[in-house]
Amino acid sequence: MKRRQFVHKALSVSLGTLAYLPGEARQARGPGFKVPAGEGRYRGHIHVGGFNSNIIDVKISGKDTSGGFAVFEQLNRTPGKGTPMHVHPSQDEVFYILEGEFYFQVGSDKYALKTGDTIFLPRNVPHSWIQLSSAGRTMMTFQPAGQMEEMFVAFSNLKTPPTPEEAAQLFAGHGVRIVGPPVTRD
C-alpha cells in the first residue's frame, strides 16, 4: 500500500471512531440534567400524525450530545400500525420495549417483542415495526442523533396520512429512505 493511501485510510478510521469515544473525549454541552417521567426535555409532547398517532417525548436531544445520540420515549396508541420499511443510512437504532407487544422486521428476519425486550436496528439495514398490543411504550435511541427529532416534529404537523410520495419526501428530507410497506405479521 502506498504511503498516501495508508495515511488516508488510517485518518478515515480514526475520525470515524470519534462518535464512539467516551464522554470526556467529546465536548460537553452543559451540566447533567433530569427529565421527569411523562415529560419531554424540549417541545413537550410531540403528537405524531401520519402513519400513527403516537406521542413522542424527547428525553435526550442531539443538542445535548453534540449530535452523538438521541433518546426518545414513545407512547404507542395505534394497534396494528407502525412505520413503513425504511433505512437509516447513517444511524443505528435501538428499541427497548417498556410496555406492550410489537412485531419487527430487520432485513429478512422477523421478531416478536414484548415488555423488557430490546432490538438493535443497524444502519443501512431495512426495518419496520408494528404495534400488536392495544397499548405500548418504547424507548428509542438513535446514534448519531441525525435529524430524528426534527422528523418527529414534522410528522406532528400532519393532519392526515401522507401520500406515499409525501411520506418518501418527508423521510428523505430527514436522512431516512422508505424502501417498502410496513411489516405484516405472518
Q: Could you describe the 3D structure shown?
A:
By secondary structure, this protein is an alpha+beta fold. It has one domain (36-180): Jelly Rolls (Sandwich), CATH 2.60.120.10. Helices cover 17% and strands 32% of the residues. The chain is built from three helices and eleven strands; from the N terminus they run H-E-E-E-E-E-E-E-E-E-E-H-H-E. The strands form three sheets. Strands 1-2-3-10-5-8 form a six-stranded antiparallel β-sheet, with helices on one face. The chain has a three-stranded antiparallel β-sheet with strand order 7-6-9, with no helix packed on it. A hairpin with a 2-residue loop joins strand 6 (101-106) and strand 7. The longest helix has 14 residues, at 3-16. The protein is globular, with a radius of gyration of 18 Å. The chain starts with a helix and ends in a 6-residue tail after the last strand. The model is unreliable at 6-25 (pLDDT under 50).
